[in-house]
Amino acid sequence: MFEHIAGPIYFRESMSMDSNVIYIDGDDRRVLVDTGTGMTPERLNEDLEKLGSSFDDITDIILTHSHIDHIGGVPAITARGNARIHLHREEAERINAGDMTLTLASTFGARLPPMRVHNALEEGDMIDVGGISLHVYHTPGHSIGSICLLEPDLGVIITGDTMFAGGSFGRVDFPTGNPRALVESLRRISELDFQVALPGHMNAITRDARISAMHSYKMAASMFTGPI
Fold first, then answer.
1. Is the separation of the CB atoms in 102 and 175 below 8 Å?
2. CB-hemisphere CA count at 13 Å for 218?
3. CA dihedral (128, 141, 158, 59) positive or negative
4. What's the CATH class of domain 2-224?
5. CA 107/CA 89 separation, integer angstroms
6. How far is CA 78 from CA 51, 128, 143, 202, 212, in A?
7. From CA 206, how far away is CA 20, in angstroms rounded?
8. Mapped to the 3 state alphabet, what secondary structure does 76-125 carry?
9. Could you tell me the mean pLDDT of each successive run of 10 residues in the chain, 228 residues long?
10. Where are the domains of the chain?
11. SS3 for 205?
């Protein structure tokens, strides 16, 4: 079930291996950020229907990175409509060239069909949706093309697997993971202005999220670069 966060932004916490999913109701643009594994797409569609939407209405899918637990739901959604896929260039170019290795699908015994990324995102891009603007920050570390999305007017940041609640953060032992890059990404996030953080797994951080980001930064720095 989706929980209303702020403005047109809704958050669906996963109870399984799926990633969390964010829905943004922008009237003429209806956006999903991440899609889960795609193992139970009917449940996601049912939850969207409770908000007056469905897979048929989705115009855009923004992926915080291309691991299967975030990208696996894309085929079921695009089969029902014409959603445009957005992903950072570092991972988008590989997928568009037919290289699906960074999705980790084979690692988990799954298969993903080839797919097309329509918009290769870059640091500093802005995605306007229904009166809000998502600012794209390239935050490698968990994967080479990981991004975070900041909505400054609402004070909300979508962090994917870069930062989680409780001072935690994403793994760095998958292909293209980079501990020092993650520390730098967490440092950058901790210096932004936000009150709410919506991570790719675990619960939403609805209070003092920037303080939580600082804890994640300090924890990662102590593990990977020594005391700060």
1. yes
2. 9
3. positive
4. alpha beta
5. 23
6. 19, 21, 24, 26, 35
7. 15
8. HHHCCCCCEEEEEHHHHHHHHCCCCHHHCCHHHCCCCCCCCCCEEECCCC
9. 97 92 95 96 97 97 98 96 96 97 88 94 96 97 98 98 97 97 98 98 97 97 80
10. 2-224
11. strand
Task: Go through 184-194 and write b for each residue having 16 or more CB atoms within 10 A of its CB, e for each that does not.
Answer: bbbbbbbebeb
d(CA 170, CA 161): 5
Asked if residues 35 and 64 have their Cβ atoms less than 8 Å apart, the reply is no
Phi (first) and psi of residue 72, to 5 degrees: -65, -25
Q: Measured between alpha carbons, how far is 124 from 155 in angstroms, rounded to an integer?
A: 17
Q: How far apart are CA 57 and CA 8, in angstroms?
A: 15
Total-model pTM: 0.97
Answer for the pair 200, 14: CB distance below 8 angstroms, yes or no: no
The amino acid that residue 129 corresponds to is V
